[in-house]
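Lest this sound abstract, we let one protein speak, letters for residues, whole numbers for local backbone shapes, and leave readers to judge:
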Amino acid sequence: MTNKTIFGLVAVLVVLVVGWQSFFIVSQTQRAIVLQFGAVVRNDVNPGLHFKMPFVQEARIFEGRLLTLESTTQRYLTLEQKALMVDSYAKWRITDVQRYYTATSGIRANAEDRLSRQLESGLRDQFARRTLNEVVSGERDQLMADMTSILNENAQREMGIEVLDVRVKAIDLPREVNLSVFERMSTEREREAQELRARGRELGEGVRADADRQSQVILAQAFREAEEIRGDGDAQAASIYAESFGQDNEFYSFWRSLQAYRESFASKNDLLVLDPDSEFFRYMQGTERR
């Protein structure tokens, strides 16, 4: 390989390197600035293909889309000094690229660290102004709107960042408070359950007592009606018997004697010691006695 060839290859390589260092591309979703020896010489470069001085100027490109800052769960105190564990996040994007680069050196972690501290401080102040009921339900939307406005104003002034939204995802009680609340709720529910059981037992006793009373009344009425019916039946039977036996007194006496014989000699072990001429045996001795 000749010197001329080597020189040509080196020249081509230099041209390629210079060309590579002279141009940069900014997409629609990016923001860019051009630095010269660390100082900003071109701010907020539009999307497209751009030229810069090779080895002298440097293009810094940043994400221009909406970004999310996930805040760690923090402990805040309400107006009545009640502790809450709050989980939140913020939506932000770069609006002033030069200010953003100057404030954060173009490092996203630096920007989010500063933004996170401001978010935490702002939320602590917002929670300290409100009661537990207000931050949970009553003024939660207003709290997030106020926090968005305050954080956006500070972030734009200090870092060239626009904060579009701040959201409180979850508000919980601390673990130790959760346990005490659970125990208190459990105690209250147990007390209510005991009251309900006692009321149920009381109502049950009343129902059973009323049922027993009604049962006794019904049985007494049934017994009375049965006795009345039985008495009426006995009276009718006695009347029929009297009317029947009154038609023949001798037959009635004979029938009563037969009944007496049957009852007296119902068992083989029955024994009577009587005079054979007793009136009791009159119907066993022949018709001449009649």
Notes: The beta strands are 23-26, 30-36, 39-45, 48-51, 57-63, 67-70, 74-77, 83-94, 161-172. The two ends are 178 Å apart (CA to CA). The chain has seven helices and nine strands.
